[in-house]
Design goal:
Elements (H helix, E strand, L loop, with lengths): L2 E4 L5 H9 L3 E4 L6 H7 L5 E4 L7 H5 L6 E4 L9 H6 L3 E3 L6 H16 L2 H9 L17 E5 L3 H12 L3 E5 L11 E2 L3 H7 L2 E4 L13 H6 L4 E5 L8 H9 L3 E6 L23 E3 L8 H21 L20 E8 L4 H11 L4 E9 L2 E8 L5 H8 L4 E7 L1
Parallel strand pairs: 1-2, 1-3, 3-4, 4-5, 6-7, 6-9, 7-8, 9-10, 10-11, 11-12
Antiparallel strand pairs: 13-15, 13-16, 14-15
Helix pairs in contact: 1-11, 5-7
Length: about 400
């Protein structure tokens, strides 16, 4: 029986979907470190994680049974995608399912910080009646600067405009501006115009240290700063200094360079205790709606890959959209992308009298993926010959 291991409190729908497909599912609540993960993956074919579990090359090299990996979140920087591909492990994530949750949190924090609700709330909890308009503003008419105009940034752009904000954005890739949003040629240009700066960049290593003392110095005096993207992109020591000096009037941070692995673990940050600062424990996508949608989406991708070989929206292997078929045998062949592989596969099938009813090939950089449907049982000698090819990474037969 195929086995799956699900970590980090995934939505129960993920387990039930996989179990409905006949997969034996083990659920564990927290993240695992490298040695724990290697031990836990013995005999496991599917792994489901969120952002806390690091799947390194060493883990993948020591998990020979692993076929597919699901990141039940947007980011995949916690996974060695190249190593996964070369080990024959297809990786899937949830690129769209929690964008609305992140957008709503960002908007809530923008309003709360602009109105200084954090300080008014704290005063009343301390028994002080501090009714004042000092430092409190409407968001209407203010300029929102979005750094990273992807799935989250674009949706935030549209909703913020509906609140009456002007939107400027900066992205290293060419992106279509939505609504009345205006693209800035440089990050400095955005910082000089924005009353609120919010980061929504991805986890590529090139973004490490993206925002530091130099960028905080370029922000408009009294501007607000948000980071709901990745913890390692911001120098939080520099942010603390900017807040203490009054150059930044408020901040909201949802991600940190080093985050506890389990609920209830201790947490510390140089940002604790600062005025008009909201700290949240990486909950941007943590709504019941988002987690249910993610659980449904990623588990379906893992199930479909196992049952049909479909790799649609995989982040590390070539994408092929495949449907369930009856009365045929499907051979999936993940291989190193070198000249002549398809011809060699077909020659092997022909030598053993195997008739091809349908075939699809896709490539992605160094990796190729060919799926062949045949109308008869595939002889063991055919499988042995295909598996023995120098270019073969992973071979599966789906009946």
């Amino acid at each position: 029986m195929l086995r799956a291991l699900l970590l980090e409190n995934l939505h129960p729908l993920a387990a039930s979907n996989l179990e409905a497909a006949g997969i034996d599912v083990t659920v564990r609540t927290g993240a695992l470190d490298e040695s724990e993960l290697i031990e836990a993956l013995d005999g496991v074919h599917l792994l489901g994680i969120r952002s806390k579990t690091n799947v390194t090359a060493n883990v993948l090299e020591n998990a020979p049974d692993l076929v597919a990996l699901g990141a039940f979140c947007i980011g995949t920087n916690q996974i060695d995608l190249r190593s996964a591909a070369t080990q024959g492990v297809a990786v899937f994530n949830a690129p769209f399912q929690n964008t609305r949750s992140v957008v709503e949190l960002a908007l809530a924090e923008i309003i709360a910080l602009t109105r200084r609700l954090t300080e008014r709330d704290r005063a009343l909890h301390e028994g002080r009646w501090d009714k004042s308009a000092e430092g409190a503003h409407e968001v209407r008419g203010r300029t929102l600067g979005i750094v990273g105009y992807g799935n989250i940034g674009t949706q935030l752009s549209v909703v913020a405009e509906n609140l009456g904000m002007s939107v400027v954005f900066y992205d290293t890739a060419e992106k279509l501006a939505l609504g009345n949003a205006r693209r800035m040629d440089t990050l400095d240009e955005l910082l000089e115009q924005a009353d609120v700066v919010t980061l929504h960049v991805d986890g590529r290593q090139g973004n490490a240290g993206l925002f530091g003392a130099k960028q905080f110095a370029r922000m408009r005096p009294g501007a607000i700063f948000l980071n709901l993207s990745r913890g390692f992109v911001v120098d939080y020591g520099a942010l603390r200094e900017a807040i203490v000096e009054g150059r930044v009037s408020g901040a909201a941070v949802d991600v940190f360079p080093h985050e506890p692995k389990r609920k209830g673990d201790s947490f510390d940050s140089e940002l604790r205790g600062l005025p008009n600062v909201i700290l949240t424990p990486h909950i941007g996508g943590s709504t019941e709606e988002a987690q249910e949608a993610i659980g449904q989406f990623v588990s379906a991708k893992l199930r479909d890959y196992l049952t049909t070989g479909s790799t649609t929206l995989s982040v590390n292997v070539p994408n092929l959209a495949l449907e369930q078929t009856t009365g045929i045998t499907r051979v999936t062949h993940l291989h190193r992308n070198t000249p002549g592989v398809l011809a060699a596969v077909n020659a092997t099938l022909a030598e053993h009298g195997t008739n091809i009813e349908g075939q699809l090939l896709a490539t992605r950089g160094e990796i190729g993926y060919v799926v062949t449907d045949v109308g008869s049982r595939v002889e063991p000698a055919v499988i042995e010959a295909l598996a023995a090819m120098e270019q073969t990474i992973a071979l599966r037969v789906l009946d």
